[in-house]
Design goal:
- This protein has about 240 residues and is α+β, with helices and mostly antiparallel strands.
- It is about 40% helix and about 20% strand.
- The strands form two sheets. Strands 1-2-4-3 form a four-stranded antiparallel beta sheet, with no helix packed on it.
- Helix 5 crosses helix 8.
- The protein is globular.
């Protein structure tokens, strides 16, 4: 998998664990993302791969840094899509809800999303909205079917940190927008967070992101049209 900061690759080890190898330009290794997996080892009562060890080294010839993390191998399949998500039992929803609640209570100095970022992204699509967040929690910051196992494990802990309350539920809800039944299930399961002011702002943020992406592409996406409809309700609820 290749991203803006470098490249990552994962594979099963002979010890029955999972190894994640990452390459980054040397000037980007100060990012909190670089140690996200290791830092997540301090979090308790959350279903996630256990972190075991890591090593890092500089590749002078290529002017890059390498990092290898060894974590627990999660054999349960990834949820992956909404069709699978729609079939998951009540126990799955309970497990994810409990994990996100435990994560939200975890104290951290890491930052998952700033007030400035939320204000900028919402303002690009919905100018004039009061985007002041009144509740902050620790968040995974990238919750979607591709980062959840069918047993409720949360994977990919690069971006976690403090964020507006409800951000994780909102990002899961955004991914479910093409299926109204699943989206409604997310709303019910995480109503305690999503119905707060910060939860509504988090939802408005993900709606703005979906609308902005569609505008950039020049055509609607499976997320953009339901996001527009949802945004109208959110704006009314926020008094904007």
């Amino acid at each position: 998998m290749f991203g803006e900061s470098g490249a990552t690759e994962g594979f099963r080890t002979s010890n029955g664990t999972w190894a994640r190898i990452e390459r980054r330009n040397r000037w980007k290794i100060n990012s909190a993302v670089w140690v996200g997996l290791e830092a997540a080892a301090t979090i308790k009562n959350v279903r996630k791969p256990e972190w075991f060890q890591a090593t890092a080294w500089i590749d002078e010839a290529r002017e890059v840094a390498w990092r290898a993390d060894e974590v627990e191998l999660i054999s349960a399949p990834i949820v992956g899509d909404l069709a699978t998500m729609a079939t998951l039992p009540d126990a799955w929803w309970t497990a994810v809800r409990e994990s996100l609640a435990a994560l939200g209570a975890h104290q951290t100095e890491r930052v998952g999303m700033t007030q400035a970022h939320l204000t900028k992204r919402i303002g690009e699509i919905f100018p004039g909205v009061d985007t002041t967040v009144d509740e902050w929690r620790t968040a995974h910051a990238d919750v979607h079917p591709g980062n959840l196992s069918v047993e409720g494990h949360l994977i990919d802990w690069e971006d976690w940190g403090a964020a507006p309350r409800g951000l994780d539920a909102a990002t899961l809800w955004q991914s479910a927008l093409p299926d109204p039944a699943v989206a409604a299930r997310v709303q019910r399961e995480f109503a305690a967070d999503l119905q707060t002011r910060s939860g509504r702002l988090s939802q408005l943020l993900v709606c703005a992101n979906a609308i902005r992406i569609a505008a950039r592409r020049g055509q609607p996406t499976p997320l953009s049209e339901p996001a527009k409809a949802a945004a109208e309700l959110l704006l009314a609820e926020l008094g904007s």
